[in-house]
Automatic annotation (TrEMBL):
Record domain Transposase Tc1-like: where: 75-140
Species assigned in the record: Trichonephila clavipes (Golden silk orbweaver)
GO terms of biological process kind: DNA integration; DNA transposition
GO MF term (any one): DNA binding
Subcellular location per the Swiss-Prot or TrEMBL entry: Nucleus
Superkingdom assignment: Eukaryota
Designated name of the protein: Transposable element Tcb1 transposase
Pfam families for the chain: HTH_Tnp_Tc3_2
Coarse class of the protein's main subcellular location: nucleus
Encoding gene, per UniProt annotation: TCB1_888
Lineage: Eukaryota, Metazoa, Ecdysozoa, Arthropoda, Chelicerata
GO cellular component terms listed in the entry, alphabetical order: nucleus
Length: 194
């Protein structure tokens, strides 16, 4: 992580700021004094000066970092598959694209497209029949007293997962698409529970 941190501090400096930093350091100013003058961190000043003394240039090299494993076309294909089928998994996408990439790469491409993996919204279908069944259930228990309700077990359906996979269905969706039909599951319950 130190390399990433140093890169982040160095990239805070604009091209306009880097030249005066080199000038001040060449004139013999201390790193602390230069940092106070340009209002940047000492680490950023130190990194800029070290690159100047090592390479003779203060420009940040382009193209540094890991080489891309996917093309722009494959990136678009990854996002398109997630949009066509919100329930698609990362392993399925990887098999469809045909490129050897890690699942984190797929997640990163989906995050760039603002697609997040969420649990689907579960909706109860409220048809006239369901309304009638609910009304009957309430009316049959309207005269219950405290001892009658004490015989009922209420559950919050708490779920314990001991492994890494909870076997829950996940959908990929953008913020605000919670109630869209492809990412919406209708739950069917037995008539006596509705």
């Amino acid at each position: 992580m130190p390399g990433k941190r140093a890169r982040r501090h160095f990239s805070q400096l604009s091209e306009f700021e880097r030249a005066p930093i080199i000038g001040m350091k060449t004139a013999g100013w201390s790193t602390r004094r230069v940092a106070g003058q340009v209002d940047r961190s000492e680490c950023a000043i130190r990194n800029c000066w070290e690159q100047w003394t090592r390479e003779g240039t203060h420009a940040w090299k382009t193209g540094s970092g890991v080489t891309r494993k996917t093309t722009r076309r494959e990136d678009r294909r990854i996002v398109r598959q997630a949009l066509e089928d919100p329930r698609v998994t990362r392993s399925t996408i990887r098999a469809e694209v045909g490129v050897v990439i890690v699942p984190q790469t797929i997640s990163r491409h989906l995050a760039e497209a603002n697609l997040k993996s969420k649990r689907p919204f579960r909706a109860l279908p409220v048809t006239p029949e369901h309304r009638q069944l609910r009304l009957q259930w309430c009316q049959s228990r309207s005269l219950w007293n405290v001892p009658d309700w004490q015989k009922v077990v209420f559950s919050d359906e708490f779920r314990v997962v001991l492994g890494t996979d909870d076997n829950r269905v996940r959908v990929l969706r953008r913020p605000g698409e919670r109630y869209n039909s492809p990412t919406l599951f209708y739950v069917t319950l037995p008539g006596q529970l509705v």
